Each structure stands twice: as C-alpha cells, then as structure tokens.
From TrEMBL:
Biased composition, class Basic residues, residue ranges: 1-15
Family: Belongs to the bacterial ribosomal protein bL35 family.
Segment forming the signal sequence: none
Gene: rpmI
Species of the source: Microcella alkaliphila
Protein name, entry field: Large ribosomal subunit protein bL35
HAMAP family on file: Ribosomal_bL35
Length: 65
C-alpha cells in the first residue's frame, strides 16, 4: 500500500508543539485591521491550541502519530 501523502492545506495552517498539541493561527487578522483596536489585534495575533478531538484529525492530515 502506498504512503499517505501530507495534506498541503493542513501543513500550511497547523503546527505541532513539542508536547504534541496542535496550534493554529486565530481568524480575523487578514483585513479591516484599521477598525479593530490594538488590544483586539494583539489578542488575535496569538496562536491557539486546538481541542483534542480536532487535533486527532489534523495530526492524521499532517502525517503525525
């Protein structure tokens, strides 16, 4: 059976930490930034940890165990 290919969309959007958790970039940082307060943009610029249920699916797409 051939090897499973990495999902190219997923590898651009997610990354795993050293402990195995999956991180993603917050939504809302692409446009209309002039209207958003600097407090909001700082908060949106952080990366978020995905829920374990979602992380299981994403790890399969990325090719991790």
């Amino acid at each position: 059976m051939p090897k499973q290919k990495t999902h190219s969309g997923a590898k651009k959007r997610f990354k795993t930490t050293g402990s195995g958790k999956v991180m993603k970039q917050s939504a809302g940082m692409r446009h209309n930034l002039e209207k958003k307060s600097s407090e909001l943009t700082r908060r949106l610029n952080r990366e978020q940890v995905l829920a374990p249920q979602d992380a299981k699916v994403i790890k399969k797409l990325i090719g991790e165990k």
